[in-house]
Amino acid sequence: MIEMNPYYARRSPVGDVFNVATFSPRKAMILAVFGDLLGTACLVAAIHLYNPTLLPLPKAPWISEINTAILQAGKSHPLAVNLGVAGLGLFALICMAASVASIVDAVHPNYYFRAGPGGFSVRVPNGVALKKFGCASDVLQLDLRWAELENWTLVQEKQLGSLSRHQGNLSAYVKLKTIDGKKYAFCLNGFQESGELIWSKLQNAREMVSARLDQEPNDSTNTPARQTLRAVTRQEKQQAVSTALTKLLAQTDPSAGVVFSDAASGKFLQFVCNDGSLLLDLPEQTLDEAASLRAAEYFSRLGLDLQEYDLLDQPGGTAVATQRAFQLQLANQRDLATQLALDLFTNVFHLPADFALAVEEV
Fold first, then answer.
1. Contact 360, 261 (CB under 8 A)
2. How far apart are CA 45 and CA 233, in angstroms?
3. Proportion of the chain in helix, strand, coil states, percent, rounded to 5
4. Sign of CA dihedral 341, 347, 352, 353
5. pLDDT in tens, 262-315
6. Is-contact 1 209, C-beta < 8 A?
7. Which residues contact 352 (CB under 8 A, 6 or more apart)?
8. What is the pLDDT, as a whole number, of residue 222?
9. Does the structure show a pLDDT above 60 at 125?
10. Predicted confidence (pLDDT) at residue 213 exceeds the cutoff of 80
11. Euclidean distance between CA atoms 96 and 186, whole angstroms
12. pLDDT category of residue 41 using cuts at 50, 70 and 90
């Protein structure tokens, strides 16, 4: 088993699960642009087929010949032409509706693929929702234990001649069957990772468990106890954060850190210190959809984007997952770090002024 920080775990009906794939708003937006262009082209074609004189086209000889042929076809085969107009128009509406659905997915991404020792949890777009006139994605959400699966397969399709595991991926999808005969299939094209990488991370996630950070250290070890204190008033919080960061700057242990969290909800951010420099770290997967958007906007004003890096099973160990986080180097600017920490609780987490701040030195 691989012990992971419980902050990286998500609760689900199958137990603790960890991210194995990250939904890509960029891919959803590219699909939306493609659908919009294709829909517009089909709509223009339908209008032109219905009446070639409605659109202001250049007066070229070949265009005049096409227009004449269309008018003659409308007179000799009116049913076929009308069916063509209706078919093109319907396809244009479908493309544009799917484009709107993709834009909604890109702006409000709420999809994931997670797994753990007990099973996997997935929420993916699954076509368009007809009850919403195709302007929103239908959603497939599954929480299945490994013992419930009879068989399942993850397939990755690659470009002909592509030799890289992670490059040249055309698509990836999962097909599975449960022991009670139910069959499911869902596409992974909307996620950032290739099918091969998702499969690898999926196998690692099946070995991950949340570490018990609240256990007292064994008497036979010299591991120091984790220290926790709480602050409620604004002045207490500012003093508590400043004091904890001062202690962190004085640490010589490169693995030392401090976690600031809301005692009620568990929402948190953390600092580590490398060579006398503070690093603010806000893991993206611990944020809900709204908080993630607020965090992106907050850090963009500071000229920073979401960072992605490998998550190790232990310091200097092997990569077991990919972590996405908002990070900011602050050198030894303790006062600025204190202000930023309190601002994040207000502007990103949207906590009330009287929330109880828990400070945990690790």
1. yes
2. 66
3. 40, 30, 30
4. positive
5. 888 888 899 998 778 899 999 887 787 788 889 989 998 888 877 776 665 555
6. yes
7. none
8. 44
9. yes
10. no
11. 22
12. very high
The CATH code of domain 2-20+111-210 reads 2.30.29
Terminal CA-to-CA distance of the chain, rounded, Å? 22
* Mean pLDDT, range 84-102, rounded to an integer: 92
Residue 14 identity: V
Q: How confident is the model at residue 216 (pLDDT cuts 50, 70, 90)?
A: very low
- What's phi and psi for 303, nearest 5 deg? 80, 25
pLDDT in tens, 152-197: 888 888 766 555 555 556 788 899 999 999 999 999 888 888 888 8
Amino acid symbol at 212:
R
Q: What are phi and psi of 9, to 5 degrees?
A: -90, 150
Distance in angstroms (rounded) separating the CA atoms of residues 161 and 125? 30
220: confidence class by pLDDT, cuts 50, 70, 90: very low
* Token digits of residue 308: 């992605």
- Token digits of residue 237: 């919080």
Higher per-residue confidence, 232 vs 224: 232
pLDDT of residue 5: 60
Tokens at 42, concatenated: 């089909």
DSSP state of 15: S
Phi/psi of residue 327, each to 5°?
Answer: -130, 145
Sign of CA dihedral 208, 200, 26, 281: positive
Please write down the HEC assignment for all residues of 210-229.
ECCCCCCCCCCCCCCCCEEE
Q: Phi first, then psi: give them for residue 315, nearest 5 degrees.
A: -55, 125
CB–CB of 293/275 below 8 Å? Answer: no
Query: In 41-167, which ranges are E strands?
Result: 112-115, 119-128, 137-145, 149-158
Quote the crossing angle between the two packed helices 289-300 and 334-347, to the nearest 10°.
Answer: 140
- Domains in the chain: boundaries: 2-20+111-210, 31-106, 227-361
How do 268-274 and 277-283 pair as beta strands? antiparallel
Q: Which one-letter amino acid corresponds to residue 136?
A: A
Pairing mode, strands 208-210 and 2-4: parallel
